[in-house]
Amino acid sequence: MTEILNHTLLRSFTPFDDLAPEYLDKVIEKAEVCEFPKGTMIFKRGRELSDCFYLVQGNIDLIDTQFTITSIDPTSEARRVPLSSSSPTKVSAISKSPVTLLKIERDFLDLVMAWSESNDSDESTTVDNEGDDWMSALLQAPLFSKVPPGNISQLFSRFSEQKLTSGDAVIKEGERGELFYVIKSGSAEVLDILGNRLAILNPGDYFGEEALVGDTTRNATVKMQTNGTLMCLEKEDFKILLHEPVTHFITADELRERQKDWPLIHILDVRLAVERRIHHLPGSRNVPLGGLRKALFGLDSQAIYLVADDAGRRSDVAAQLLIQAGFEAYILKHADQHYTDNLLSL
Questions:
Q1: d(Cα 197, Cα 211) in Å, to the nearest integer?
Q2: Looking at residue 55, what is its pLDDT?
Q3: Model confidence, pTM
């Protein structure tokens, strides 16, 4: 059914009718066409709904709390909007015939709208293929999926552009960090202190966040491999709009309340082994911050990760790395045995 997904179909629905073609292309990449037989309950009233559904073909009945039925078919004006515009849902949806629905993640739709409006808000900005690539890549990164949509518009408006040539050093190991960078065009390489290449960065890749989160010096050097353009975000804007909204703290008391809803919990101690020998939380796992990036590949994506706050700024950086990698992570406040003894059995 994916062949029916095109700009014409999307423009028959709101808010896609106001989106530029480049944004519609991104929606098509994420959207899904689903078919359901007659008599299927598509969703039930009062339930959380992570997707938006639009009616493409067939007939749907929407039933509210008073059991009032609103019938939707392809000729209805109401089919231009999602079958449920809220979550939890205020209506139940039942197919009265075989139906075809367009489904798209609610959060992704919010991000696309914020993204498009951030460009529209600046009359001097036009969206070209180059600009589209880096913004699109950011919106699809796990970190940005957790940023409130209202912040996305402000973020894009506060980036400044910097053009560089091949061989230019963007950041140097040991210097203070003041900017967060995204590659708009070209490529760059990450080098260690001996000049060994650690990674290649391409359009949409970002770097420089660790020094900003931990308020520390740069831990690597980044040089341009080719001529290119970087988008730069000031430290304060990064912290207020990008770091703080996705960093969550939890106390031992709050954890006790939520533990029943979190079947799998891991506590990470990101201090050095010698620090851990002096004192550590029972049941915690020692993954020093320097080795966390490599350890990410072996972590359980279904688990909730708590980073003990006894590592100071290193705890902030560790939580940020986990969130960037798509994990659900919190900083455990007052992480000492007095608060957490016998709290968890891991």
A1: 19
A2: 95
A3: 0.62
